[in-house]
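Sample pair:
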Amino acid sequence: MKKLKLVGILTAVVLIGGVISIPLLNNYTAYKVERALCEIPLPEEAELIESLSQAGKLTGNGNGMQYFGAILIRSDLSLEELDAYYSDYRSNEWECLVETQEG
């Protein structure tokens, strides 16, 4: 009886631990993406405004996990100049993408 109770408690701890730890690990992985972006030197006369990260199913179907990190900078450089600057830091087509936000 004691053994059965111990097995039940351990099973509950493992299940609850998994439910809690998996999202925390995913959020931490997304945070590492954000930190990696923040470590890239900014272009001259550019100012870091904000950074963020997100983990989840961000696009498409299925059960995959995607990690998103972004930085918002203020710069007088053109979109093409910023894209050229950050292209040196890309290892694939999905890294260091540059977009503009007006306003």
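The longest strand covers residues 47-56.
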